[in-house]
Write a structure and sequence with these properties.
two-stranded antiparallel sheet, 7 strands, 2 domains, Alpha-Beta Plaits
Length: about 400
């Protein structure tokens, strides 16, 4: 999936579906649909956010549900949604700058209390109908002529821009499903606040905002289960699922980092993690249609669907050589954070160390061992053992 599609989906799809439902049904049916499924979306999302320790998603769904209950169906919906929706957008802007924690943890609890307090204060301030009417009827609330959009107070547009920018920054930095869902949540909330969408539209787009957050939690749970957090490669469970669905011939290579334990003991676990990331980045570029997986510890797996082991050998040699020639620097604790002004590249005892690693690889295929994935993995592991016995930094079959 390209970066553009990753940013657009599923938020853009949810937005399109909400628009189609709004125009394809009458207002009463659309509002009833939103009311029925809103309970499911908010309830399921809150439960999933608690289980998977997504504090920001939990808070976002909570304030969306509060906004839905407080506004939808009210006689002064337009004015109330403009005021309270702006408060919720402010909460989303804050959430965009945070990181997820367990809802029951100290930090997660502080996030819940802090944002809830903000929303409660905003709700109290706008419990006065006169304040609500004044906020909604004064687009010139802030003296910025460039910040205008028909139907929205300028304060709402500024807070919405802050929420979208904060969530976009989080998505750009962390690339997580929840970060992306917060961007679309802010957009859909802003759409729900426009006076022209009507009661049904407000209800529908609020539920759509909650749905994007809930989908983000589900995606996060999938990533946690199937993708290795350290290297970013698919994990053993993903490999097993892929193997269960494969038919026909394929080759499997087991890859092990040479002398990793000694390397880890000498340089520390942080450097060991750097090694694993380096190796993973090289394995991820394997040619020949292969795909890399983190098998566990310092072991990786390369899968070549539709290929025999002899066909995979040349591609495995490319990967082995790539790892062997890779270099990375380890910053010494004595090294200054800033480069000296004279720019001299003098070697000192406190300068960075340049390290390299090698890998041993064993490969097997279904043509030799039969069709069982466990048999192929076992044969590949035996071939890996032979590669290590023969001196490491080599490919064996």
């Amino acid at each position: 999936m390209t970066a553009t599609l990753r940013a657009l989906l599923p938020g853009a799809a949810v937005l399109v579906i909400a628009v189609v439902v709004l125009f394809a049904t009458d207002d009463a049916a659309a509002q009833e649909l939103a009311g029925t499924y809103g309970l499911v979306v908010y309830g399921a999302g809150l439960a999933l956010a608690w289980v998977f320790h997504r504090s920001r998603a939990f808070i976002a769904l909570g304030v969306l549900a509060w906004l839905d209950i407080a506004v939808v169906g009210q006689a002064d919906r337009v004015e109330l949604l403009a005021a309270l929706g702006t408060v919720v957008l402010g909460a989303l802007a804050i959430l965009g700058l945070m990181r997820d924690r367990g809802v029951g943890s100290r930090v997660g609890g502080a996030q819940v209390v802090g944002v809830t307090t903000l929303v409660a204060v905003g709700g109290y301030l706008f419990s006065d109908p006169e304040r609500v009417a004044s906020f909604a009827s004064r687009p010139e609330l802030l003296p910025l002529e460039v910040v205008t959009w028909p139907g929205y107070p300028r304060a709402t547009l500024l807070v919405a821009a802050a929420a979208i920018l904060a969530a976009s920054w989080g998505f750009f930095r962390y690339r997580g499903p929840v970060e992306r869902s917060l961007v679309w949540c802010s957009v859909l909330l802003l759409v729900s606040m426009h006076p022209d969408v009507g009661d049904a539209g407000s209800a529908l787009f609020l539920v759509a905002a909650g749905l994007t957050v809930t989908i983000g939690i589900v995606e996060t749970s999938y990533v946690m289960a199937y993708r290795d957090e350290l290297t970013g490669l698919p994990g053993r469970r993903a490999l097993r699922q892929t193997l269960d669905g494969l038919k026909g011939r394929y080759a499997i290579a087991m890859v092990d980092v040479d002398h990793f334990k000694k390397f880890n003991d000498r340089h520390g676990h942080d450097v060991g993690d750097q090694v694993l990331k380096l190796v993973a980045s090289r394995l991820a570029r394997v040619p020949g249609g292969g795909k890399a997986y983190r098998y566990g510890g310092e072991e990786f797996t390369l899968l070549f669907p539709g290929r025999e082991r002899d066909e995979a050998l040349e591609h495995l040699e490319v990967v082995r050589t790539s790892v062997e020639h890779a270099r990375f620097s380890v910053r010494s604790w004595k090294r200054p954070q800033k480069k000296p002004e004279n720019g001299a590249a003098k070697k000192r005892s406190g300068s960075s160390k340049h390290l390299s690693v090698t890998v041993s690889i064993g490969v097997a295929d279904t043509a030799v061992t039969g069709s069982g994935a466990d048999d192929v993995l076992k044969k590949a592991d035996q071939a890996l053992y032979r590669a290590k016995q023969r001196g490491r930094n080599r490919v064996s079959k």
